[in-house]
Amino acid sequence: MTTTDTIETTTHAGGADPGHILQIGMGFWASKTLLSAVEMGLFTELGDGRLTGPQIGDRLGLHQRSGADFLDALVALGLLDREGDGPGARYGNTTDTALFLDKRSPAYLGGILEMSSARLYGFWGSLTEALRTGLPQSEVKTGAPSLFEGVYADPEHLEAFLDAMSGLQLGAFNALAHTLDLRGHATFCDLGGANGELAATIAAANPHLTGTVFDLPPVVPIADLHLAGKGVGDRVTAVAGDFFVDDLPAADVYFLGNVLHDWDERGKQALIDKAYAALPSGGILVAIENVIDDARRTNAFGLLMSLNMLIELPGGFDYTGAQFDTWARRAGFARTEVRHLAGPTSAAIAYKQ
Fold it and tell me: O-methyltransferase dimerisation domain location, by residue (predicted)?
């Protein structure tokens, strides 16, 4: 069963069917059902085995009116599996939800969904205003600290945020680490490297490399701890700095994981220029992002992520491979390529002669 099966419509004359329109228009129903399930820890509760509806209701504090529809909606959406019918039916995780939505799984990506439920779901209700004004609709709209200012001021929230960001791209990081040939390089630096997940993945796949995670001071202890836990702390270290202000750590390869899209075009160009100037001959710059297809027709996630940047930040946007090529060549890079990694994510790679 897929979400496209959940709204039945009558085919109109000529074969026209509004089902696709209605499915997208009412898509927030399914979205919030999943987000609430993650928020309440449903998939983690089911990590030890199947439970009946009443058992789940007791553990999550569900009202008796809501439980059956909530759980069966998740079954219909392909997010839970159910054995049996009625009050005695037993619910369990699917293969995917067990892997990605149980907090005890190393592949857990629910952090980004938790943040989406707590923050973005409400902010996206003001998309129309953002489209008309070009202004963020996040915390800054009310004069509160921005996402980065607020998160970086709170160590506990910062660690959760960094875990959420890295969890979103685990598959892409692994794909990159096992397909990018780095045998001709000795050092790398992940600019804005967050908790060090990308750096740890690259280092694990390339035992000859040493590396640096370069990020703001509050991130350094979190990254050092994560790198040590991944077993690469002897080869990868975290260094405090601001990539717009400070000199970049020397490296043969620079990574920008989910960083470029945070900035306006001037900021993007400044980062690419700075990386080019710091790289040796033969060095490369790798940007991991939801790179939009040049025709701007197929990578819906990348285009929607760009709208999310409109909601979140004053100048951020996602970009096409052609745009990246323009900025990279302007900086002096000899050539670029876009390499698909996983899902909607690609690596935009620039090569210095």
Answer: 26-101
Out of 1-15, 98-112, 115-129, 225-239, which region has the weakest mean confidence (pLDDT)?
1-15
Residue among 185, 208, 261, 340 flagged as catalytic: 261
Q: Three-class SS string for 261-326?
A: HHCCHHHHHHHHHHHHHHCCCCCEEEEEECCECCCCCCCHHHHHHHHHHHHHCCCCCCCEHHHHHH
Report the DSSP beta bridge partners of residue 90.
52, 83
User: Structure tokens of 55?
Assistant: 């058992």
139 φ, ψ (degrees, to nearest 5): -55, -35
80 closest CA partner among 68, 69, 89, 71 = 71
Angstrom distance (rounded) from CA 221 to CA 122: 32
Per the annotation, the verdict on 340 as an active-site residue is no
Q: Is the pLDDT of residue 84 over 90?
A: yes
Q: Decide: helix, strand or coil at residue 104.
A: coil
Query: Burial code of 67-104, b = ≥16 C-beta within 10 A, e = fewer?
Result: bbebbbbbebbebbbbeeeeeebbbbbbeebbebbbee
Exposed (0-12), middle (13-18) or buried (19+): which is 48, by Cβ within 10 Å? exposed
**pLDDT averaged over the chain?**
93
218: closest CA among 245, 240, 247? 240
- The two tokens of residue 72 are 């069966």
Lowest mean pLDDT among 66-80, 167-181, 230-244: 167-181
Beta pairing, strands 51-52 & 90-93 = antiparallel
Map tokens 């996402």 to a residue: 147
Q: How many residues does the chain have?
A: 353
Find the helix or strand (DSSP H, E) in which 337 lies.
strand 335-342
